[in-house]
Design goal:
single chain; mainly alpha
């Protein structure tokens, strides 16, 4: 069966993957500094711009880089409002920065590229540092008496009481899942952050509540508190109107909470993929294929379950099958690239096709790749016994 799948993939793969659309042009740079308020206005506009849905990772990264560059003077400022600006930056790290190249979800799901992992780790560590800076700046402004009465009230009752703790706790849980915390301290940090989020959840609304629920659920799943994790995460995973990134985080947490073993978690993921895949886009279905692949590789080390497991690349092929005709070729190319990139130690017809196509795409190895591709799709020879 896997040989037939491999041959079909080759037959349906385009000879050349089309180039991605041109990077969108971001808005013009802010006007020259004339005090801090024009910079604040430029940063606000750049934040709105960075939240757009970009069609390429390069465009999203360019918009994010512009935002971070524009806000540098605010982060270096001793203005009494700097605590708010620092917390804004930490919040943007979580809600915008982690979406660049899908580095956050890829790292939580457990199969990021090296570039995605590095970006996610750096972004989360920056968010944690910014929340510490924001708390220090708020307390200094209150102690110095340099804030207006309105700002004093906000720093005390909003920033210090709710917003900074929320962003810090969410960043800590995500950092624990992405490997961005010191290994020896990670479990205790995530446990403490989860407890804070569980306490805060009922006081929050809107986007803040959704983020807190997702991160609290991930922390509860990591702690093995299955019922509590499911209560927090299932409504997010099942809500087709929720942000796809949060839904993918919720699925990852639900799979972890479902069973103590990788085979059990993969079975739970199978049920969720069947139910949720129609409500996700191509990128979301490929991401669930990442999680399925990771769980399959872990399950393969279980001698009692390895023989009963479906192929590790099964989720990615499901993503190809679910893709609409207009995008199926691009999804197929991406799925095969992920198989080639991650299937170390695997040897089956689909994996051999994926590796051969990746090799054939390199000018210096094209001939070898074509030879490997022919060998991969050659029908198996029958053995006769005389």
């Amino acid at each position: 069966m896997s040989w037939l799948i491999a041959a079909a993939l080759v037959a349906q793969s385009p000879a050349q993957v089309p180039a991605p659309p041109a990077t969108e042009r971001v808005a013009a740079e802010a006007p020259a500094a004339g005090g801090v308020d024009p910079i604040v206005a430029a940063v606000d506009a750049a934040r709105a711009e960075a939240r757009r849905e970009w069609s390429t990772a390069a465009a999203a990264a360019a918009s994010w880089s512009r935002l971070t560059r524009l806000r540098e003077p605010l982060l270096a400022s001793d203005d009494p409002r700097s605590a708010i600006w620092r917390c804004d930056a930490a919040e943007d790290d979580l809600t915008i920065g982690l979406s660049v190249d899908a580095c956050g979800t890829a790292s939580v799901l457990g199969l990021p590229t090296a570039a995605q992992r590095d970006r996610a780790v750096a972004t989360l560590r920056e968010a944690l540092a910014l929340t510490r800076d924001a708390e220090r700046a708020a307390r200094e402004a209150l102690s110095a008496g340099t804030a207006t009465p309105e700002l004093t009230a906000r720093l005390d009752s909003v920033e210090l009481a709710r917003r900074i703790p929320l962003v810090r706790a969410c960043a800590a849980v995500l950092a624990g899942w992405c490997g961005a915390l010191p290994e020896g301290d990670s479990a205790a940090i995530v446990e403490s952050a989860t407890a804070r989020l569980v306490t805060m959840r009922s006081t929050l609304t809107g986007n803040a509540r959704a983020l807190a629920d997702a991160c609290a659920g991930l922390g509860l799943a990591r702690a093995g508190q299955r019922a509590e994790a499911e209560a927090a995460l299932a409504p997010i995973a099942n809500d087709a109107r929720a942000a796809q990134g949060l839904r993918l985080l919720a699925v990852a947490g639900l799979a972890e909470a479902a069973a103590p073993s990788a085979p059990g978690r993969r079975r739970a993921l199978d049920a969720m993929r069947a139910r949720l895949a129609p409500t996700l886009d191509d990128a979301g279905r490929l991401a669930l294929g990442d999680l399925d692949f990771r769980l399959a590789r872990v399950a393969a080390s279980d001698a009692t379950a390895a023989s009963a497991q479906a192929p590790a690349w099964r989720g990615w092929l499901d993503a190809i099958a679910a893709a609409p005709p207009a995008s199926r070729g691009a999804v197929r190319a991406e799925a095969l690239a992920r198989i080639a990139r991650n299937a170390e130690g695997m040897d089956d017809p689909v994996t051999r096709v994926a590796r051969a196509l990746a090799q054939a795409a390199l000018p210096e190895a094209r001939a070898q790749g074509i030879g490997a591709l022919r060998a991969a799709i050659a029908p198996p020879t029958s053995l006769s016994i005389r």
